[in-house]
Amino acid sequence: MAVCLFCQEENPSGLTNCKQCGMALPKEQEKRKQKGIARFVWFVILLALFCAAMIVWLPRTPPVAG
Q1: Does 27 map to a domain?
Q2: How far apart are the first and last CA of the chain?
Q3: How far apart are CA 16 and CA 44, in angstroms?
Q4: pLDDT tens digits along 4-47
Q5: Does residue 49 fall inside a structural domain?
Q6: Domain that holds residue 51
Q7: Dist CA 15 CA 2 (whole Å)
Q8: Are 25 and 4 in contact (CB under 8 A)?
Q9: Are 40 and 30 in contact (CB under 8 A)?
Q10: The pLDDT of residue 28
Q11: pLDDT over 80 at 66, yes or no
């Protein structure tokens, strides 16, 4: 039995959505949460690589005033 986190309705095993309100049941929500965390980790890694590339690529000396 899976209990809906939204409406607290008990649902038989094997369902992916609540039979009363249609919300995703906890097993499906956990899968989505893990997918979201993995996406966030990849975003942070790519952002860190982009920042590292900009640190190396951008000039470090101030422009000369004319």
Answers
A1: yes
A2: 76
A3: 31
A4: 888 999 888 888 899 999 998 876 667 778 899 999 999 999 99
A5: yes
A6: 2-57
A7: 8
A8: yes
A9: no
A10: 60
A11: no
